[in-house]
Every structure is written in structure tokens, then in C-alpha cells.
């Protein structure tokens, strides 16, 4: 089976909004299952010089973007036995950062079309083209409109993965012809509710639509889903499936992690967790109190930061110490946390834009990890926390629901809340604090967490089954 994996980011090359974890892990796992997998990414300016030095130029070609033709350079490197293609256009991609620009629609229209042009310029005939999130949403659209008549594309099947339905990429209809190069007669493929919607176009055009967890796939079809596509998705429910993401158990491995103060496993974690907790407190200037639980908080989105601000002082008042990891060292959330640390010395600590080493130290050194981003369909943070025996506190939705079971009497592996509001989240945190007091039961919960199998092995089998199903269609 031959699979071309198209994504806008992938660990370790560059990652921004979380989809890089999926794209960075799945191709190599599929390759180990003897699938012929290759992957294609934009060549951003953020790519490090170390990786750039390994790039090999393969070809150059032009890509139609509306009424213009744009240069595209095709480069490749091999990593983890997977060939990675990088598509170069400095006008679109030589910038600081990956997304959030005024012309993102045009940038990723170029990328989507360039993915298909890449297939014409390499000695590789994929059976399945797997596209991920809105940045690659136009790939199946362009394929059906402009490439199906070519022999190399006639039997190519497409899978489109929805990582987060809130990110749809919506523009006024004026973008259709001049920017996207799509004739008015084909507007119905992309238009929905009077606007052009990239994600709608991908769902309309792809052979199979997957999501990052079974629960999230069901939630997308619920009548009160707030994303605006629920009626359309219910009409397309026959092509929607949910596959739970996995985690790289080599990267997140407390038995061998070089970033943590002591290594440990599920059968001998107490001393290792104690040393890691002590080291984390020392590094961040926190009071080291073995009797008091240490709560890590990963807040990346606006909603998560708002919840963190509402919860921080009440949780400190309840006797919890907090390590808050947020995305930026500047701005109001960081200023608030610094001011709080000045008022409550030794209790909260700020870890802004954590490095990989700092992230791993938080997973290992904390007793519990709160993920307050209430609508995240399947963050891998809770799976990493479980791996290190740090009990996650998450909303009972999406992939959180599929991986975290409420702890009670030594059973379960974490704590959950239903309502996305400070009182419900605070209640879950206080339940965790109460459970921490029972040392024997808490040890059982930690061991339960560490024995959870969230590796890519199960997910890869399901992806392979999905690809085989796609290849049988029409």
C-alpha cells in the first residue's frame, strides 16, 4: 500500500497548533507496518539550519494560483525511514511563524495544489492521499476538479482528517476565482451558508473523513454542536469515522527520558516521581512540600488561558501549588501569573513557551495535570501525562473521554468535568487533591495511568484498515 501524507506541520521539523504530533508520528509507524509512506510539508522559514542542510533538491515546477503561476521548489530528506518532501515558495512560506497571516487562504491554496503537482513530479504513485485539517482541505477539491482525468490520479483515494472542526478557513465568495482558481460553476463544492468554507469542500470531496477520536466523531453530529456544519455533516455521516490518536512512547518514556531528573516505571515510580518533583520545584523556585500535591496546567488557547486566570487564586487558596505552562512569555496571561507569584511566593510558577525538556520535566514532576482547554478534540497532553503517572484533569469530551476514566477508590486514571466553567473545573481539581491524601489508593491510580496503552500501535492498525476501506470505494 502506498500512502502520501499531506500536512502543514510535523514534529520535529516545525509544530504550532498540535497537529504536528499526528503528522510527525503516524507516517513512521505506518512505515514499520510495511506501508510505503511518504509525507509532504511546506518549507517554512522556521525550518532549522540543521534540517535544511539535509535537504536534497528534486525538482522545480509552477503551480497555478488563481490567475497566476507561482514557483515551487521540491526538496526531500529521509527521516525515520520515511521520505519527507518540502515545498518551497519564499513569498508564501519564508515568514516567522506558520499561520495567522492575512493571506493564509491563498498560501494554503498554493500548498494544496502543489501537493498534487508534486505527485506529477516524483516517481511515486500513491493509492491513498491522506490530508490533514484546513491547510490541506483543498487537496481533494482540486483533485476531483482538475486532476481526475490524468492516469496517475484516476484511482487515487483521499482521506481528510478533521483535527479541530472549529478551524474551517472561511472566506467571502470573491476568493473563488481570482485566488483559488475555481470556476463559479463549481462554487457549490466549497460554498456553505453564503461563504467559501475550505473544510466543507474537503468533506464534500474526500472519500473518507476521519477525526482524532471516536467520541469526537459522534460529537460532530450532535444537533447542538457549535461549529456550524452539523447539518451538512449529518448528511455525510456515512463517510465519517473516528480513530483515537496515539502517542510516541519512545519520545515520552519515563524509563529512559533524558530530560527528567530520575527515570522510573510503573512498578517503581515512587522514588523517581519524588526526585522529579523535587527537581522541578527547585528549578522553578517552588516550595518543595511532599505532602502537598503539585498541579501542572497546560493552557494554550484563549479559552484555556481564561480558565487558568479564573482558577489560579482559588486553587492556591485550597492548598494546591501550580506550575502554569503557557505559550508566550509576554502578554497579559504571563503578566498576571508573574504578579500572582510575587503575591504568593513559592506557590505558583510560570513556565512560558516551555522547551521540550521543560515540558517533560513537568510531566514527570507534577502529581496531576490540568488541561483547561475545554474543546480540544484530542490533545495528546493527557496521554503524555498518563505515561508519566501524572493524573490528568480534563473535560469529559472528545479524545479526553476516550482516554481518561474518573478515579474512585483506586480505580480509574484521572479526573473529569462536564461543564466548561470554573466551578466544575475547580471541583475536579479538589477531588484530585482529596484523592492524593490516600497514599495507597493514589499509588494504585498512578500505576493505572502508567499502564495505559496509548501507543500508536492500535491507532496504526485502524488507519491501515481505513486506507484499505478507501481503496475499495468505487
Task: Walk me through the structure.
The structure is a single chain. The chain is an alpha/beta fold. It folds into 2 domains: 2-246 and 457-472, Glycogen Phosphorylase B (Rossmann fold); 269-453, Glycogen Phosphorylase B (Rossmann fold). The protein contains 18 helices and 18 strands. It has helices spanning 19-32, 49-52, 90-93, 104-120, 138-147, 175-180, 198-205, 214-219, 230-235, 269-284, 302-317, 332-343, 356-365, 381-387, 398-403, 422-436, 439-450, 456-472, and strands at residues 2-6, 36-42, 56-65, 68-79, 82-88, 128-132, 157-162, 170-171, 191-192, 195-197, 208-211, 240-242, 294-299, 321-326, 348-352, 368-370, 391-395, 415-417. A 9-stranded mixed β-sheet has the order 3-4-5-2-1-6-7-11-12, with helices on both faces. It has a 6-stranded parallel β-sheet with strand order 15-14-13-16-17-18, with helices on both faces. It has a 3-stranded antiparallel β-sheet with strand order 8-10-9. Helix 5 crosses helix 7 and helix 11 crosses helix 16 (422-436).
